[in-house]
Structures are given as C-alpha cells and as structure tokens.
Fold each of these.
Amino acid sequence: MKILGIETTCDETSVSIVEDGKHVLSNIIATSIDLHIKTGGIIPEQAARRQIESMIPVLNEAIVAAFPKEPTTNHQQLISNHIDSIAVAYGPGLIGSLLVGVETAKTLSYVLNKPLIPVNHLIAHIYANWIEPLADYRLQSTENAVASSQRAISFPALALVVSGGHTDLVFMKSHTDIEWISGTRDDAAGEAFDKTARLLDFPYPGGIHLSRAADEYISQIPNSQFQELDLFPRPLSEDEKTLDWSFSGLKTAVLREMERAKTIEQLSNETIQQYAAEIQEAIVDSLVDKSLKAAQKYKPKSFIVGGGVSANKRLREKLRNGIDGLRLGIGFFAPEPKYSTDNAAAIATCAFYHNQTKPWQEVDAKPNLTIMGEK
Ligand code: KG4
Ligand code: ZN
C-alpha cells in the first residue's frame, strides 16, 4: 500500500510517498528558513506564502522521485495509478500553513477520487520510528536494551514527543489505544532551546545552533566532567508527584547569569559554548529524568522519542543510556535525525497504522490540536 503524505504545519512544505508504513520511496522537503533567518523567527504570513508557491513543485518532485522508471509527463496519472491514499497533517500548527497542505490534500482526494487520511502531526512524530531502515545507533544499543531479534517496536510503549511547540509523554497500549501521561506546564523543550539560543545570539533556528556549540564544548572536556554541568535549574525534577516538565524558568535563569557575567559582546566564544552546554544539559536532564521515572512506573516494552528535539545527540545518548541502565529490557527507539524534524514521510507512515479515512468535506485544519485530539 502506497500513501502520499503532505506536511505543512510550520515552515516546511513536504511531500512523501511511503510504502507499507516503512519504505520511503520519496521524501521532499522545502523550507522557507532563508526568510526566517533574516527576521530571526517565523513570520506566519511569509511562511504560508512560500508554501503556496512550493506545494505543486514539491508534489511533482516527490512523485517523480518515487517512481523513477515511469514516464514523468503525467503526474496525475502517476498518482492515480500508484497511490492508494492521501494523508495530510491537519494540526497542530500555523493556520495559514496548515491550510496549504490540507486544501491540497482535499483537492487531490476529490479530483483523483482517493481516500483521505487526516493525521495528527504530533502522533506522526512518534511514527517516524517505524520508518526503515533502522537508525544506526539503534543497532548499537547495548545488549540489555534490545536483543537483536527484538529490534521492532513492541507495545506497550512510552512515547516522548519533543517539538518546537509541544512536549508530551504518552503510553501506547496499541496503535490506537493511546493515553496521555504528562507534558510541559509552560514552554516546550524546543521552545526552551530556541528562546535561550536567541538570548545567546545564535541565528534562527536556535536549537540546532545551540546544540552544535554545546557539543563542541562537551567534546573538549574530559568524560568525567560531563556530569558537572549543572549551572541552570531542572524545575520539577525533585517533585516526585509529577511527571510534568516546566521550562519557562530557564530563560530567566540564563538571562540572569548573562547579566551577572558580562554583556554578550564581551562574552568569549568559550563562555558562550559553555552556556550552550549548560542549557542543553538542563533541558536534556529534565527530559531524561521524568522519562526514566515514567519508564520505571509504566514498565513499557519500548521507549520511543520523536519530534525536532529528538534530533539532539545528547538527548538521544542520555535517554538511551538511561533506559538501558534501568535494566528492564526496554527497547529504545529514536528516528533517523532527518525524520526527527518535520517531514511528510512520518505523516504517510502514521496514516498507514491509523488508517482512519474521512470524506474530504469533513477534514479541516486544526491549529490547536493536541496530541490526544481536539479539546
Ligand atoms: O518537530 P519540529 O521539527 O517542528 C515542530 O513541530 O515544532 O521541531 C522543531 C524544534 C525547534 O524548536 C528546534 O530548535 C528543535 O526542534 N531542534 C533541536 C535540534 N534540531 C531541531 N533542538 C535541539 N537540538 C537539535 N539538534
Ligand atoms: Zn513537528
């Protein structure tokens, strides 16, 4: 079964064709990041305009890339002949951006008479883990975590979704039986990365630049000193009663520390890198701490992480080591970094397992969708 997925929730325009919920035949992503670097953040109107312009070219490219042996003059015919369903991320996200993908998917469904599958973008982040081939480090996982015969995700699973706007932990008894466990009380983990990165004057998108600087700093200090990075608070980590997170205090703490030090222009490159490492450590430790507590409580067979922040190397390492260290035989799964951030392959993969088709008349963009659906 081949599903064509569309993802336009934020600043990407992505189309992908995925076979049987695991084989990516194509995954094309256009971003408008060049515009946002200039403004230091996303201007929704600009992102949506660019997405309208990119949608058809990206769609064409995805179809041509998926079927390289077919004549490429008639793209509609290719979709008609080869695609079983159209899937689209219908929320959460920016309304103008969402509308581009949703209306395109509805049009394809209507004109080509294909079933339409609306997909929750946050759930799709989890499903990036079903994409094959397996990410390398998964195969390197220590013997306690995943026996080689057991490298497939099995239920029940705990899934941590860490994106730019959301931080949620859910318990999956099956593909369709999903229970919300905890989330952030204020900023999302990605937001914490981005906002603090801005304070340190890193260019947009901050998270990735901050994490690069942090990794560089960490690579220069001896292994034993890794643990000593604890300049910034890990709110709620002492509170045994909750598995929630809180990240909003981090910005203030970083700002105070910077004021205490010097003005940004005077801070040396090494100090900036050190702050970056301390910030990354505070966010990662918070995420890992509650994840491990949840794993001990729920004893899942698999622990899954997804969303843009799951591209973070330090988070993957600490989560994997932490989960392995529990010695509960829990398999740890994180997507290939290119499938951590927004992409349509995850949408098409998710649609395969949540094959809930809807008439196009009933599919609407939902900017405020939560991981558990509409409020
Ligand atoms: O899932 P995503 O691509 O888009 C949303 O759904 O929001 O997540 C984007 C978030 C941004 O906050 C970005 O800074 C963060 O993921 N991010 C990272 C890294 N790569 C992306 N944060 C930390 N380390 C990274 N390597
Ligand atoms: Zn996302």
Note: The radius of gyration is 21 Å.
Amino acid sequence: MNATTLHKNEYSFGLLGFPLDHSLSPVLHHTALKCHNLKGKYHLFPVDQNDFHLSIPQQLIRIRSGELDGLNVTIPYKQKVIQYLDELTPAADAIGAVNTIYVDNNKLFGHNTDAGGFKRDLESLNIDHQAGNILVLGAGGAARAVVYSLLRSDSRVIICARRTEQANQIKLDFESKVLTNHLHIIELSEESLTSNLNEVFLIINTTPLGMSPNTNRCPWPENLIFPPDACLYDLIYNPLKTKLMQIATISGARAYNGLGMLIEQAAMAFFTWTGLDPDKDKMREAALNALA
Ligand code: NAP
C-alpha cells in the first residue's frame, strides 16, 4: 500500500488503455471517493498504440511527481507497461500483467488486483474452488490472473484455448511461481470439451465472446449441452447476462457475470492508493446505473 497518499485533500487517479469510451472505472472510483467524503477525479488517458512509447512514460512522470496518486492499466497495455516500472508485486510478477500502479519509497510499483478481485468475488458468491475440476475458457491476460488465483488456492484447472500454445506458455511462465501439477491444457473444441467434462463443477469464461456490442457470440460449442450441475462464472459484465449465461441457466446451471470481480479489483486498487476500503454496495449500484 502507498501510505504516503493517505489523508490527502484531493485525489487524482487515472486509467491508461485503448479504447476507454465505455470504461466503468471513473464511475466506480468517483463513488468510492464520494463515500469517504473525499474530493478527487479519475481521468481517462486513452493511449494510441502508435505512440505508447512516448505517452505511457509521460503519464508515469506524473505519478512519480505526485501529480497523480494512482493509475490503472487496461487492454492493451497490461503487459507493455511493465518495462517502464521499477518493481512488480509478487502477483503482478507471476501473472505477467499490471493493472494498478502506485509509488512507494520513490519507486514505481506495478500490481495486479484482477487475481485478488476474482478470488474475493468467488468467495462472496460462496463458490467453492476445490470441489473438482475447473474449466477456464481462453488463455489471455484475464485467464492468467484467474488461473494464478485458482492455482494458489490448490484448485484443479483445465485451460481450454483455441491456441493451446498460448495456454502452454501460461503453464511454462507459472512453473517457478506456483504449483502447476494440477494445471492441464486442452483445445477449445466440442470434441475435447466433451471428453473433459467429468468432475467439472465450475466453468469460467475469460474470452471476450459475447461482450457488447457482439452479444450474440459465445465460446461454448453449439451442439454441446452445458453441464447442468456446473456453475458458470463469465468475466464479462456488459451485458449483465451474456449468451453463454443464458445457455447455462437454460440448462439448469447457476451463472454469474464478472461485475463483482470488476468492483473487487477496483476496490483493491482504491485501497492500494488511499488505504481506505470503499463501499462496494454503492459502487455496484453506481455501475448498474451506468450500465442501464
Ligand atoms: P485477451 O488478453 O485479449 O484474451 C482473450 C482470450 O480469449 C485469448 O485467449 C483469445 O485467444 C481468446 N479468444 C478471443 N476470441 C476468441 C474466439 N473467437 N474463440 C476462442 N477464443 C477466443 O483479453 P483479456 O484481457 O483476457 O480479457 C478477456 C475478457 O475478460 C474481456 O471480455 C474483458 O472485458 C474481461 N475481463 C473482465 C474483468 C472483470 O473484472 N470482470 C477483468 C479483466 C478482463 P486468441 O489470443 O487466440 O485471440
């Protein structure tokens, strides 16, 4: 935690990424500030891919100088930003991605609150993570955070990826950071899913398929019945009920969206920058209003 920013009169946070038009982060952090009667602003800093080598260091100067109290990072810079930071927290180092930046002892730290946010949301939904096998659909940045969090909790995980080399890279990268004996990789296809559904009690979608505006898309194979006894956790939160969630609920399964994870990761970032726990119910209410 960056203790030097405690009890400031006015805060200034920001988000680096592209595109940022539909980001809920300003709403979440403005609500968090308001709940503590704090002044401040959460700025959006859209960074063009063509000049990120110039733009990202410029924003980092502002956080080093104290002009900004904290930065979030989103697609497509969670990995690219690492080269400009001084240190990584163990979570960010293991996952290989940063979504939260803060200054401590004049050093620029990169942290990852996606993994912790995911874990906290599973806990608040009372989803057991050790009851059998967990299928993770997709092997991108969010999958890395989710799989890291699950392996640290001794879960048995199967990554289902359209490019298995991407998933194998996760396993390779994690080998020195966390136990990977219980991590298996399969192709995201009807055939391999069918033969790996035994003992699966939780299915997690980390692909963007079904996200607004392409709400008709879905990573689940069309002819495969969604296991009715399994639970679905879809990281997507816009729309609040994805096509995959509809398929799961029709089949009789419980289904949750990723809004809880989004709120938890934001709350953890806010705590990192201010030392204060925000009111997550109020954050949820504000996010739902913004999505409506
Ligand atoms: P990413 O790094 O681009 O990874 C996306 C993954 O999905 C990759 O493995 C990609 O494979 C796969 N994929 C994409 N299109 C596919 C398709 N047609 N068929 C099969 N696989 C496909 O993105 P990310 O950062 O992980 O984000 C993924 C999703 O999670 C987004 O919807 C994001 O909004 C959401 N998310 C939510 C939270 C939250 O707090 N709730 C936090 C982080 C992310 P290829 O590399 O082969 O394309």
Note: The mean pLDDT is 95.
